[in-house]
Amino acid sequence: MESLHGLGTATDWVVMIVYFVGIMLFGSYFAKYNRTTTDFFFGGRRFAWWLITVSIVATGVGSHSFVKYSAKGFEHGISSTMTYMNDWFFVPFFLFGWLPIVVYTKIRSIPEYFERRFSPTVRFIATVFQLLYLIGYLGIGLLTLGKVFTPLLPAEINLLGLSIPVSLMGVIITIAVITGTYTTFGGQTAVIFTDLLQGLILLFAGFLIFLMGINYVGGLDAFWHLLPVDWRLPLADFNKPPDFNFVGIFWQDGVAGSVGFLFMNMGLIMRFMSAKSVDEGRKAAVFNVLFMLPLSAIVVGNAGWIGKALTEMVPSQLTTNVNPDEVFIAVTHIISTTGVFGFVIAALTATLLSTVDSLINAIAAVYMNDVHHPIKKLLKKKVGTAEQEAKKELGAARIASIVITGLGIIATIPFSQYPTVYEAHGYFHSTLTPPLVTAIFLGVFWRKFTPAGVLATFLGGSSLMILGARYPDILITPFAHGTPFDPVHPYTYISALYNTIVCLGVAVIITKTFHWQKVVVNKIRNYSNHDNLMKVFIAAIALSLLLVWLNLGGLYFLLFATLVMTILVSLTAQYYIHYDPAKHTDGLTAWSIHRAKEIFKGGKINEREGEIVKVNWKQRKDNHDYVNVSSGDMKKMEAEVGDLVYVCDVRKYLGGLKSFHSKLGEPHDEPGVVYISEEHKLTGQFQEGKILYVEKEM
Amino acid sequence: MPSFSHSWLPYIYLYVAGGFFFFFGMYIIHKSNSLDLRLKKNRWWRKVLYFGFFYFMIIHAILIIAAIYW
Q1: CB contact under 8 A, A237 and B26
Q2: What is the dihedral of CA A18, A297, A419, A76, to 10 degrees?
Q3: pTM (two decimals)
Q4: Over the stretch A61-113, which tens digit does the pLDDT of each residue have?
Q5: How large is the angle between the packed helices A168-217 and A49-60, nearest 10 degrees?
Q6: Helices (H), ranges, A10-119
Q7: Is B69 on the interface with A (CB under 8 A)?
Q8: What is the phi-psi region of residue A77: left when phi exceeds 0, alpha when psi lies from -120 to 50, beta otherwise?
């Protein structure tokens, strides 16, 4: 493979530095909209769907996308778009299952959902999985950033007579510090607004490359016919080659990946949670999957398609021996001039930073909710006034973002030992996604799913996955759909099917045997030393996990150990966890969305459809959290006292930035006027004389 | 002419297996009343969801036909 170096010219670097500084200032400007941790992490639940949609583009087209999909586009053609066009199958589950639950239960992290749905023990294990997953993902994101930037740099930089050697780690640290700064001080509002800018630049740059490329090879017709027929097909060959086949990618990306993306990607979920309402979040999700993802597929993959056309047209310009991971940069360099190349690299920077900033924000949210708050509660720390607490929380959130950025940098060290980022990412993804995805999915859609089932999924399911990775020829081959066995990277994609099946299988079997477990645990309780017996069970579980992790023993012995461990996990969970199905499913599953709404509102919901009213605002002297509109306006809105309302500046281009949520108080007699508190005015950053609108939420 | 395993087989598999998940999802959200069809906006959402499924199905079919015959 041929590697490229020093492609970035001085002009390109000026463009990039100007871009970096600009984006930092832009993000930091929005810090003023963060008055609480809700604002910091969730943008105060205020934004319009279109703002969320564009913001998601920059996050969804992740740090690996340009590099990864251009490589696959070069090697296999239009089928590089597969992963962007197979997400619709799980959209119903998301729009009418997970999204309303996440919003109405006001959960701040996925582990928090596990506590409310199951128990604190389940939350603890879910937190471990989630943090490992997110920090690892951040590490991989930073590593990719470093790998993309390093070839652009010279071997050393001369600054004021000093010669600074350029190393991968140096590049990673510099980028992490810059990204961490504006995420730390800007929070989610900064992330959303910088992503809006970055998303637009990204789409523009991607299509610019496509148009320049098409022009370079002689037009659309010439481009199409330069591509061999197999390169033009939108789906890969059914089960070969092992490194890119349809059936494996369907299960890995279309099923496990789609559910993981929609249900587990906290960065994405926080975007939807920052929408002004559930319906607005649905619009953002639908528009994103229907239109933005197919467009993004062209944006990220087209450099590879153009590259293939170039090799067919003038083989000397771009040899087939080029490192696929460098195809994006190589093609862009060939088809564009210096200034344009700098701009495109700045756009690439935009997407890379976007993924990393979302991850930092998401991990900080998990830390605050699942580590900081429980520890604070455990230590019974003295609570100050609401204002003091909000200030402290915001400070802690900012420190968490800094520490997480540091951990992300450390996490790049082990990942950099893998031959490619893709392998590191693939290994990490396939190991940690299926248990969490299964647990969330069944938790939301299956009322009977028990804590024993979810704990067995986490421990037993992941042990079976580890065994699958160690003995793929025996365990995964039956699920492989004829995919060739590659001894170096066995079943890279189709292993997702095996992993999902074992996790689902464990979850279903343990949940379905709930009554048997109950009978056994009742018998155990009759023994005088039942407490000690349970401690022996826990020790046996720990021992079995160690045996599997350290691969001590043959396959059949380890399968037996996993079976015993899974049974013991279910009995231990049954013994220790006090689970009340009625309480633990109330408003927490797709079967009780109506209850979730009632809990969210704190009373009966009013779903009569009314009008949106435009009003002038006046400030009340008190600081209570309600607004007052005239009785006539309330009638137009079909609203009642106590209904939830959304108050927003009418200027649509602000996308809901100047807005807040509140409740309706007693009506007055001044039509076209809303009375708000000082806190509302500060949260919404409203300007004198600007018109607002009031919309009933429920 | 590309082989069946590279052209129509993946397409059939995608929309049969994917369709199983999609229609199962539609069934669950109907059955759980999460998609409450008494509300006008939810009736609109149901149309959007079915539209999305057939929208991708048609796009993929057009792309395969274009790849083979254009």
Answers
A1: no
A2: -130
A3: 0.85
A4: 655 677 778 888 998 999 989 988 998 999 999 999 999 998 888 887 788 88
A5: 100
A6: 10-29, 37-42, 49-60, 65-76, 91-93, 99-104, 110-117
A7: no
A8: left
